[in-house]
Design goal:
The chain is mainly β. The chain has a single domain, classed as Beta Barrel (AOC barrel-like). The chain has no helices and eight strands. Strands 1-2-3-4-5-6-7-8 form an eight-stranded antiparallel β-sheet, with no helix packed on it. The two termini are 30 Å apart.
């Protein structure tokens, strides 16, 4: 993760909060490129946070270049973010136009480099 800018947009007296986070990521490995991500987060009465998001990734998978959108969902609890994602059908551009796939990640709080999986195919 390169940056995280979070702002609340709704808070209640019951200690619940909704927030929006703008995030930038840099991918290396299977995917080489940069991602621009918008998260919506729910902070409930417990310590768990639930989130959803959309991320446009621009870069390469092997020798194929273009962009695609990942749809994220997950939780943050006990200092760990766990998430799953999938490539939104029809979101690919350039050589990545027919990209499909899904994956996941697990990140510790303040972890700089986060391992991820992306099981992908081209249709």
């Amino acid at each position: 993760m390169l940056s995280w800018n979070e702002q609340p947009y709704h808070e209640t007296q019951e200690e619940q909060r909704l927030a929006r986070a703008s995030v930038t990521n840099r991918f290396s490995g299977v995917v080489e490129g940069d991602g621009t991500l918008e998260y919506l987060l729910h902070y409930g009465e417990s310590s768990a946070v639930s989130y959803i998001g959309l991320e446009r990734v621009t870069g390469r998978i092997g020798d194929k270049a273009g962009s695609f959108v990942l749809q994220h969902s997950g939780t943050f609890e006990d200092g760990r973010a766990k998430g799953t994602w999938f490539v939104m059908p029809g979101s690919g551009t350039g050589d990545l136009r027919s990209l499909r796939g899904e994956g996941s990640f697990l990140a510790e709080l303040h972890q700089k480099d986060v391992p991820y999986t992306l099981n992908y195919r081209f249709e």
